[in-house]
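Hi L.,

You mentioned the student needs an example of a multi-chain input paired with its predicted structure. This one should do, with 940 residues in total across all chains.
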Amino acid sequence: MTDATQIPETKRASLLQLNAWTRRRNAAETRFKAYGMIAIAIGLLMLIILVFNIISRGSGAFQQTFVTLEVELLADKLDKKGNRDIEDIKKVSTFGYTPLLKNAFEEKLTAAGIETELKSKDLVGILSKSAAAQLRNFVINDPSRIGDRVEFEFLASSRVDGYLKDRVSRDSIANDKNISAEQLDIVDVLMANGSLKKRFNLSFITGSDASDARPEAAGMGVSMIGSLFMMMVVLVLALPIGVAASIYLEEFAPKNWITDIIEVNISNLAAVPSIVFGILGLAVFINYMHLPNSAPLVGGLVLTLMTLPTIIISTRASLKAVPPSIRDAALGVGASKMQSVFHHVLPLAAPGILTGTIIGLAQALGETAPLLLIGMVGFIASNPPDSIAAGLMSPNSAMPAQIYEWAKRADPAFYERAWGGIIILLVFLVGMNTIAVILRRRFERRW
Amino acid sequence: MSTTGLLVIAVLVLTIFGYFMASNRAIAAAGGDRRKLHSLPAYYGSNAAMFTAIPALGVLVLWLLAQPMMIDRSVLSTIPDSIITEGSSAGLVMSDVRRVADGLDLVVSEDVMSANDVLALQTGQTDIRALLASVGAAVGADVKSEVLEAAQKYRKQTTTGQLWMAVVVATLALIGFAMSVMAAKPDFRARNTVERGMLALLIFAASLAVLTTVGIVFSMLFESINFFRLHPWTDFFFGTSWAPNFRGDSDLSILPLLWGTLYISFIALTVAVPVGLFAAIYLSEYAGSKVRSVAKPLLEILAGIPTIVYGLFALLTVGPTLVRIFGRGEEGLLGVEWMSGATAVLTAGLVMGIMLIPFVSSLSDDIINAVPQSLRDGSLGLGATPSETIRQVVLPAALPGIVGAILLAASRAIGETMIVVLGAGAIAKFSANPLDAMTTITTRIVSQLTGDTDFSSPETLVAFALGLTLFVLTLGLNVIALYIVRKYREQYD
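Structure written out for the whole complex:
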């Protein structure tokens, strides 16, 4: 008879009372769960910080400070010959208009009863450098107004604008040669009598980029058009090619090594860094095919190649979701394979394909790196294109490239515009994704 | 309008014409009784449209691609070596020639001179540069007689080429049109032909993806080979310093850049992996469906934000915050002077980590969900707590898949551009201090290829070698990761 194993004597304890070991295990359980919650909290916190940061720093760009001034369009300065000939009027450069602004400012101050030691040149410094050009454009558009007194709303300079937005303070301008404390005194007075105020600035959304010295005049409009043209190219090329490729791979391709190569290729292409597509675009489209630098057409082609894998992957998923019974039924009543796919499977998969395409487009819209290499940065996109061909071929910027350009110009006024640009970009992305979600909810079919 | 545009429109008109002619002809041949036709009338029309448009337009595209190359080669062979001076290259001279030729075309089209007068231009008699400037075509320097001669030759060959192109394309379209319209008879199997044609188009679309890859590899390979002709490959792969110098004689070694890239990616992964992994565990094992349906899409928003936004966030928010903590000496929060500028390895790494959180979490989420429920049930049935089940059963089972996910995230981090361009700085060095500014492969590609680039200098061409290295690196990581993930999935299928 073998000895029975000695059962160690355990302390008898109530089941209702946790012993130390169980307590340790339970604590470990709680801790582990807490780690998970902390991780999610960190992720959500980052999202909140990011969104808060974007909105708080970017919303200022939608507001701009304007100065109301009544300018007398002196005939002897603007039209010396007095014949109202448009060619002669055009000969007067923006320098010729500056004295008018000086006069207007001095009148304004006299009327308000303010004494200042500032020179009239410094007074005009309160206005944006684009003020004289604004005046000139007005006169050239309507020469009959010469001699009249006209009320204008001019942009204030970026420093004055920053002063109203608390970006610039009297302490921070000590070493700033663009603005002085005396000028800010005048600004305070003008603000008090209502001729200098901050209001919504539509030209940030519709306007064009401006040079380094005039951040207050810069806008996103032209680069938005550039992005629009690029998205058109992507849609026109990537959607048909992507759908055709998916139909072949999903419905027709025989299982062999060639198909395998194509499939592996597509899944790898989806993970190639975007900048590599930029190198491809530079080498093939610009250096080899001599397409114009910075053209939205080239940007669109590069982004097409980049979004193709995304569209193919989502299209294949939605083709796969159409049940085989549909195909069998079509084939059963005598349709050819091609007819069954194009008449029955494809229409049923269309909502899914559309959703995938919109998401692919949204991805392409926010992509920056390849655009840097094909030259869509580094110049000022000043005029909206006047035809579709020009929109495709003439140099333009794109929204993310424009934001990058502003971020590089090391000036807080441009930083504000970069954040504002991000708000516009994100509004587009949120809009596109919402459409995709609605489409999916509305038309998704469970078989 | 250009010859090409007119040609395309002509072919398209002929195509539409062919469609209706062929389908009407088929119906007429059947005596108006559609039942006698082999296929639906639309198929006869489509057949005609297909044979008219596709061969003609295909040849047109190929011609447009090949012609510039052929003409470049033939014109280049006539340019004497003497005018390819020091510091210049055949490519630069060729682009001069092209610019002059385009300018002369403009002179003709704006009626400044007649076509014959332009052909008779001589450098000695007319100031070509002023002439070109008058129509808005800017030429860098005075036009040499050899360049003018080459430009004239270029124009002549281009015109001849376009003429032949028009003839060939029009003939092809007409032959296709005539043959397919003639073939529209009741016993012609139009549907089968059209479907075969469509299948060919589908195959072509599918192979475009392969073509893109081939394009990527070859475009970078050729320029990289050019680079290694000008610059020793030993310096590129084994040198220790990166100091491009546009006067020549630069140090172009990838190692410092690779160090910066890997260091930043490492920091990004140390942020993203724990957070993403724990988030995935919580979402898949603990969270109720309500929390899951809110938290998961919210986290995934982080993945949908464009990288330029993260770049700006790094440059203007995270960087300055870090400087306030680790820099500014006495005024800083820690009272130390460890960090001077906002751009640093840590700045870029942290922000990239935030970007990668949803990437890691959604991939790991899928993988954890793929672990069969029976494993969990068995473990819980033996008395293990949920956390013990996760740590000792679920995670080991999911480990290969999670490793794959991390490798995919690493490949994403290595190829990321905008965050490092704005947040990491531009100094190439070996340093272990995360508060130093360092640079990466992608930022150097951007800086070598933007602005004025000269495709004959090693300083520009190095970008292609860097790009190729980056491509090989990320592709390798992806292939390994996908292999691991796929192998693991099969285990439980």
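You could point out the following to them. The first strand of chain B starts at residue 242 and ends at 243. The mean pLDDT of chain B is 85.

Best wishes,
N.
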